[in-house]
Write a structure and sequence with these properties.
The structure is a single chain. By secondary structure, the chain is an all-alpha fold. It has helices at 2-17, 23-44, 51-72, 75-79, 84-113, 116-120, 126-149, 155-158. The longest helix has 30 residues, at 84-113. The radius of gyration is 19 Å and the shape is globular. The model is unreliable at 151-157 (pLDDT under 50). It is a multi-pass membrane protein.
Length: 164
Amino acid sequence: MFLASNGGGWLGDYFIHSCGFRVASARKTVNTIGFVGAAGALVLMPAAQGPKQGIAATTCTLTMAGLARGGFSVNHMDIAPRHAGVVMGVSNTAGTLAGVVGVAVTGVLLQHAGSGSSLAGCCRNKLEHQSKFTVEMARSNFGLLTLVSGEWLPARLKQSPQRT
């Protein structure tokens, strides 16, 4: 993800400086490429015929998610340039708390199922297994649509600030 995140930043800069994109358009384009790529890789995951194909699909998913970071990880500087460190700290804390809860939930699921292989067998058929990844793909695309449309922002935040 480190290389892909940096690649996303470079791609965004390329769109701005070489292609003439506005900053917001360049970031949204990088996010779109990353989110759509990650969603597509998630759809391929259930089709994996073995561990190597599963690892390849996972790697592709995480690479594309890393690429998407190049579009939104710099938002802290846009939101509060003088307090970007504080804003970054608060957002990272929220993300870390979600990660802690996710690990705890995963532990409960594995304990309930007995092992990872039992958990994989919880799906009665391939269609049910595919549907679990399709739900995640839909969630990723919902995030993409929210980002691209910008409709979730209150009207006063959409207005450009008056500079003096």
